[in-house]
Amino acid sequence: MTIENVTQRPVGGSDPARVYDYFIGGDSGLEADRSAGAWIRLQAPDLLAAMQENRSFLSRAVRWLSRLGIDQFIDIGSGFPVSPNTHEIALSMSPSGSVVYCDVDLEVGQRTRALIAGTKGTDFVQGDIRNPEKLVAQPAIQKLIHSGRPVACVLAAVLHFVPEDADPERITAVLRESLPHGSYLVVSHVAGDIPWTERNNVETLRRAFEDMYPRTRAQVAKFFGDFEMVAPGVVPAVKWHPAEGTSGEKPDLAIYAGVGRKV
Prior knowledge:
The protein is α/β, with parallel strands linked by helices and about 260 residues long. The chain has a single domain (about 5-260), classed as 3-Layer(aba) Sandwich (Rossmann fold), CATH 3.40.50.150. The chain is about 40% helix and about 15% strand. Strands 1, 2, 3, 4, 5, 6, 7 and 8 form an eight-stranded mixed beta sheet that branches. Strand 2, helix 6 (about 105-115) and strand 3 form a beta-alpha-beta unit. The N and C termini lie far apart (about 35 Å). The model is unreliable at about 1-10 (pLDDT under 50). Keywords: Methyltransferase, Transferase.
């Protein structure tokens, strides 16, 4: 999101990726980022809750796939590393596995490379999801795709930053086509048809979404193409395989999640 749009005062150089990092418990933010995040917490608490739930979904999906034996992950639009990261979960369950992170942000790349330095089975590539052909051509990604084993492609909270004129359906089609059979696509996306509660300031939400593109459940489902959807399909993130010990009956936050398999 454009933090300058959301806040009603100068924020002194806050950065959207670092503010999101603050939302989900990371430590990459500067004082300006923490200040902007605190403002948003007051004005749109459900936006913060949705971002936290997105992170929870990502962890559950990686664990679920790892239990199936999937040990190769491509995490596109990975953002600043916040533990537990995809590789921490995946490699703890399959130490011989591989995780490649991708992000367009140079600072994200620096932090991620520093984190995974010396960790066998991990890599980071700089790339823009809006150019999927160039992204999948990266040697580190090609190595996974041509390994002869299924790959999980993770698109967690990234497609809602892709406008319609950048053709997100084409982007996801290119990514799906590149994956070997038996692979999985993991998607989470801000919802355009789940209402926000009255405790959220309408003007703050409007500003937050000036460079985000919420989409309906049907639109999110199209990103899976002809992949076979894993039950329960595309649902509010809190309802996708809720964590053990919880009922999944928390209020629906405005973020969808789903996992599909290439058959």
